[in-house]
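Field: sequence (string)
Field: structure_tokens (string)

Example rows 1 and 2, in order.
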Amino acid sequence: MAKLDEIAELLTEEIKGFENSVNRIEELKTFLITYKVKADTTDIDFILKRYNDHQKKAVEDQHKLMANVVYYIKKSITFPKWAIKLSWGLLVCIILVLGFSVYKVSQISMLKQEAFEQGEEKAVAHFRVFFEATPEASELYQEWREPKSTK
């Protein structure tokens, strides 16, 4: 019987433990039923607000950049290809004309020298023919060229 008493005593202790567990579960049940759960979204709101501020700043920066691009596009000037080619052609023609003019101007002194030499040769030939035709004039010229000193 002692064994039976021990088993009965263990069973009563287990039943008391079970009752205690059931009582605690009932208390938790009533607590959970009366407990009001409030949704706290302050962290999510903070994150979303920060993200929204970041997006607004990014959009403003993009608007500023776009405004700059539009300003520079409006300020820029575009020329057709034919106008650019025509300008380059005119520039090349002007440079060629200026180069030719400089060349011709530099040749003027040589032309003057050649003209002077030709004129000198013609004058000397003319006087030679004249002196050969009129020997009296040749003698007078020689006297004039080499005056006799009266010393």
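Row 2 begins here:
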Amino acid sequence: MKVISNNPLFKENDFSDFNFIDGNYLDVLKSARDYIHKGFSLLNHPLYGSVKPNETIYRTILLKEEKALDENSLMLIEDAITFFNSFESNSKPKNWPERILNDFQYIDKSLIMESFSHISNCN
């Protein structure tokens, strides 16, 4: 499993294949798209948790390597990028205080760990 994240809470982790993205939410989505083009598929929805792109700055994506292009994953990630861009164009950048950033990190990590646990139990 490949993990792509811009969440600093994941920097120290036990994932064997982890890519920390020093960038924003969109950078994570684009990195995931690049991996999908290389033959990976999504293990979690790129817009999980009902947290809109303008409501957080952290995103984590779980991928698995496949033998061919997963068109469904490509469609989902492209739709997520379009969705992100529609929110980004209608909102002004926010200067979030540290305590709010910490909350965003915690929410992202909690949601993705629940997904990770579910995926692990299914395999």
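free_text_note (row 2): The mean pLDDT is 89.
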